[in-house]
Amino acid sequence: MASKMTRSDRETWTPTREEYTQLWKESRLSIPPLMRIPAAAITAFSVGMTLGLAHGSKMAGLRFRAEHAHRLPTTTTGWYLYHKSKNYHLAYGGLKEGLKVGARLSVLSTAMFCVENLFDVYRGTKDLFSTVMASLAVAGGFSFWNRFSAAETARTAKKGLIFGLAYGAVQDVVSLAKGRPVGYVDFIRRQIGKSSQLQENTT
User: How crowded is residue 53: how many other Cβ atoms within 10 Å of its Cβ?
Assistant: First the structure.
């Protein structure tokens, strides 16, 4: 009977206002993972869509001009149809490339933020080390999936390391500004405190 009540209570449990506020306060960038990860995916997709749309439409335009360079129209109607067809190819090429790049960035960012959160939970602390490890893990998975060479894998890992250090450092600065604990900062403070206490005891 007690187990049934416990299961029922767990199913109907809802966080109190204080617990909800504490969750926001303790989360990275003051945004809980269940909201931060989808927001990152949407942002990455939007950025990828914009970049892919610009690049794809440009390449589609150059391809269209190259394919029709030997048979340019000679009449007004012909030029109208030429530009109409060109605009269609620009839109189609840009949309296709935009969706491809957007989806790729969205998947990579979702994977990175999910792995980062897993490291946070496993380590019991939130700092740039989790971000760096997540970035390197995703970079390694991306390299393996695309069957990169050793040199390409090293370059991808380097980019992942730089991103992890930069983004992780930004999150740590925000955490410190918000008064949230940062693992390695707390460790350094404890070591300094121990050293100071040891010096006082010796004197």
Answer: 21
